[in-house]
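Mods, move this if it's the wrong board.
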Amino acid sequence: MTIEAFYEPLDTDLFASSPSTAGPWSPGFQHGGPVSALIGRAFERHGTRVARVTVEILGPVPVAPLRVATRVVRPGRRVSLLEGELFSGDGDGRADSPIVRARAWRIAEAPAELEPIDNAEAPAPLPGPGAPGLSGWPGAHLDGYLSSIEWRFVRGSFAQPGPGEVWGRPRIPLMAGEDDSPLVRTLVLADSGSGVGSQLDFAKWMVINTDLTVALNRDPVGEWINMRSRLQAQPGGSALADTELADASGTFGRGLQTLIVDTH
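Not the wrong board. Structure tokens:
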């Protein structure tokens, strides 16, 4: 069976989840990338460009039908604040507790005469097809999300301690019958930053993010997205993954994840 997308629309706000959404920890639970992109897609339907998205993951997201609800909480001509919720199942969501909550700032485009400012280091060039690709760790589920992305590592890997740098692009679209927007392509990949940059042994440690924040100073261009990721972790605290997001033209944004670190 050929899987053509992460999701298939069942109704205006109800979507079937394909096995490709499954994360590395279990074939029954979704990776945060497609989940974040699904809410981001809903936010985009409200008008001006999305400049920042924060996704709060309240619990495991099953590989099952998902319903998305969004609303404007602060309307405005230049800026507006949106909220979204994700529910599991094919009910209307009103009697259920959300499994994901999110907020997004929509910000009007800066004037065309603004002089560009870029103080970030340029990413490494996109490697050829022979570059190191997907690698797992003992017990990882590789047949879902991880295999649905084409990975070309510049340094590090999912099985090798970070910091790391990788170029990636989805092999399938988020939604059946649609082309991914720049925001959707970014969100599908950005939640992988903690894996790209991790210096923790996933076979020994449970490392799961509770959230994802992506801020964009411009929309990415082209299919490929570069992620340069690094991790900070301390005993008695938690962990933080910081990811620079870039394309062939340079850096366009940043991802930040707060992580639980515990023994299995």
